[in-house]
User: Fold these one by one.
Assistant:
Number 1:
Amino acid sequence: MATCPIIQEREGEWTSNEMIEVLSFRIPAFFLSGSESPQVLCDFITNFQTKPDDVFIVSYPKSGTTWVQEIVWQIYHNGEISKKVLGDRVLFIEKALLPESTHLDITTMPSPRLFKSHLPYDAIPKGTDDAKTPCKYIYVARNPKDAAVSSYKFMASFGTNGMNAPWEFYAKLFIEGKTVYNKWNDHVLSWWKHRHDPNVLFLKYEDLKKDLQSNVRIISEFLNKSLSEEVINLITEQCTFKGMMKNVQSFLLGGKVEGPKFLRKGMVGNWKEHFTPELDERFEKEVLEKLKGSGLEFDFEL
């Protein structure tokens, strides 16, 4: 049986959130209920059987997953806006064993089944005969400086169950790959290498900000969903940050207004309010340097 220890990074009185290691990557400890062992989640992910029309929306945390989930949902529902919490419409694979999860209905869900995940490519569920019946994966990547700031703000919003440390401590952990889902660069490159696979669509958060309408069209074509220009325009309008904030109740964790929020600012370049020149230099050398030669580049301001 695999060992999945509880991990919590410490430095003096500062602590990270509690994590567990599953399939060689870290996830928040609260993704498991008290009655389930980490091995059960390992087995669930490893043995999960996909269907040809399954769609996974994937990213490193705080990189636009919520945004793309809503776009995909609206594409499949011709621009409909749902008041139902997004997490009940698009199921989060890594949280499938939580008591409040609807995972027991996964096998009987009507197709197409929509899933959210933060798994790297090698760990994402795949069909037993992937070459003949591949499901589809939409991966969205965000520049690591904004992703790190957004991740910190989100984890800190959990209070005593989250990050009990200043931004500088979290940034250090992010660079070293000691946060959830390990190193950002390893994660995005695992998917970037498969960007030409016919069942993988690789998107960038910054590109969606620059031209949302074109990307809604790209996503709908990837999903083989023929939509009129009227519906494309409607989805584009409804899936701007301003448009989604009109239905903010759908994007609250547990439906609680006072709790952590999946929608914060929706900006490109907010990192500049948090990075010192020294930290920026570390990110360039220890995070972005590893992208050189891959062809993967990011916008850091618009």
Number 2:
Amino acid sequence: MALVMKYINIMNRYMDTHGDPRTKDWPMMSSPFPTLAVCLTYVYLVKVLGPRWMENRKPFRLQNTLIIYNAAQVIFSAWIFYEIGISGWLTGHYSFRCQPVEYNNNPRTIRMVHACWWYYFSKFTEFMDTIFFVLRKKESQITTLHVIHHGCMPMSVWFGVKFTPGGHSTFFGLLNTFVHIIMYTYYMFSAMGPQFQKYLWWKKYLTTLQMVQFILIMVHAFQLLFIECNYPKAFVWWIGMHAVMFFFLFNEFYKQAYKGRKSQYKNLLMFCLQRPEKLRKEDEPLLANGHANGDCQTTEKKLLNGHANGKLMANGSSSAKSSNGYSSSSNSNGYKNGAVLANGVNGHTTELTQRKVK
């Protein structure tokens, strides 16, 4: 324990000596340990304590809370974007090729330093994204990517505010807040209910925008490895490698979410047409995630959309039940008929093509 305290004291002295004196006494800036403690608490809360606490409870709806929260995040992100932009990047004062940190007390410079701290603070407010997932029992949304992304960011930004508030690294904050304006706008409309779903066709492009963001950050950061610039090379690597890591994490998520899913549905459909009485073990997660609702689903169109509701029966018949309680079935004569499917919005049914079984 004494050895640990010794190293902590050495680290604190290093922070005091090499840190920016302008931010030394600002909240959470004297030492990295409070930020680290909050990040670790967040991970424990959303991965262990929260799900355990919600295990035997009904999910909270939180619709109005989500609308207000996401609207507030849009406004907050837009304000930080404006502050970072007006303090340098959008006024022509900052150079996209090389921008050293300005360690003076010029009002414009101090404005950028304050914007950096508020950007750091915004990383804590984003923890609420995951906490709302926990309260709503949306376990599938609490992915490794999600937790790593949110859990790492406050600690990463802390070093920038402590040592280099301003300059080249703030390009990251400019792009990131711009993306968050769009992202939280999407979340806000999504929280408003099913009537807004038709306006949210661009969901997959959010992930693409995230990846483009990280590519731009990589290029902007790593260019300083090839040119002379009075900016710490350690922070060039720190920012650039973060962008590389998040790019590959988001790329993997994109492939799983938007490319792998369609292949899964097609494979499940083909299997169901051959052996409708039994679902493969590896396809059970599709049922658990709500992409299918029955033993083997009836139609290709509904299955690929993830909304099939009904099942092909082993005895040559099929049934489906609509949301208003009515049902329909066909039977015998060597036919498997997914004749009626539920429409989850208004309970209407759709006549589908019969499939004859040899």
Number 3:
Amino acid sequence: MDSRFWACLFFMLVPFLCNATLVSAGEHVLTLGHSNFTETVSKHNFIVVEFYAPWCGPCMKLSPEYEKAASILSSHDPPVILAKVDASHEANEELASEYEITHIPTVKILRNGGKNLQEYKGPREADGIVAYLEKEVAPASAEIKSLEDATSVIDENKISIVGIFTEFSGEEFNNFTALAEKLRSDFDFGHTLYPKLLPRGESSVNGPTVRLLKPFDERSVDFQDFHVDALEKFVEEASVPTVTLFNKDPSNHPFVIKFFNSPNAKAMLFLNFSSELVDGFKSKFYDLAVRYKGNGISFLIGDIEASQGPFQYFRLKDEQVPLIFILNNDGQKYLKSNLEPDHIGPWLKEYKDGNLQPFMNSEPIPETNNEPVKVIVADSLHDLVINSGKNVLLEFYAPWCGDCEKLAPILDEVAVSFENDANMIIAKLDATANDIPTHIFEVHGYPTLYFKSASGKFVKYDGNGSKEDIIDFIRNNRENSIQPETVKDEL
């Protein structure tokens, strides 16, 4: 999957989540890396670790919030430790791979000396971080409220999970407690001996039952298989709306997060909710979501006024709404705009039948490309790099990346060194504005350099940014044995 795309789109669609974690450590945030990570984590029963990159805009936004939360939690009894790892640093690449860091920032909670791992899914402001983590470190039993004295466990705007038992003991109750321990950061749990205390159909309860109460679809669902794996699967499936709603209402935000965390392909319809056509679109979209349920597609409908994310990423104009796009697990994107309600069904069928062409985000191909370092865009990547039959050194960069700016004049010098070699190309591609094939290139930070040999072998550059080292790397990997005289002279 194209993790750059997911991160970009997610932050544009859900701006309330963009405030994401620390870049420069304060006095209460531990700095970890490959040399001290394992030793440090092994000493703590509970530690929170953020994987970030110095160049990441979203990572910078919550720097003071993360530090503030760390300061508050340092006085907790026992203290709650917050730490960070620069996932873009070459020395930490193995750590990032081990912990499956596919986008940044990513925050992980490690328990029992690192033996147990879970994703942090909480708020991004200091008070929210503190409240979420205090709940995480509390005993699980404290999170299972008795409905007899705490009916407030049921919030009409949230998902609540209630166990109904004849006694608070035995295998079924213990398995329910284990479920609460595992999922307590995502849901509110309660239990009761008295079904009459339950809203929404209490007379239907017969025997030990788990009831999931939710603010959407059928509002309540019962389940009576008390194996932990079966309970967890039930909760995960029943807690997802048939169609996730994205608008400015913060009560919908947790469901948007679950939508993006789903492994399914994602079909997203955006339109103006103030339009008189919105009811027709919503009805048709919901019917299709029901029809495709269980077929590996999740559905979201969004108010275009709540986010300009699709326009920003796909470079669309406002008049192209309504628009629908699909993102699959291979990072491919499919787009249709200016559609009518009746267009959606046939278009989805074309996608399922494999008859749609993926959408590629690309800058225009330059009309002139005469500089020593050639400009590559998504639409020219295959012709000028992948299928060129030449040796190519390609830089993936970001316009706002300071290290990329430092490398630019060095690459110019390298390109000049090879200007008499028709079999060698030095090139660059703006990875923030062009889609790249992620099955060929792994780009987790900027700048990233790849060498493509004349026969089509791809090698990632892992040296430093000096002119001499880059030229030496090219010489060791190029397949044409004839070297330009300028390079020989310089070496």
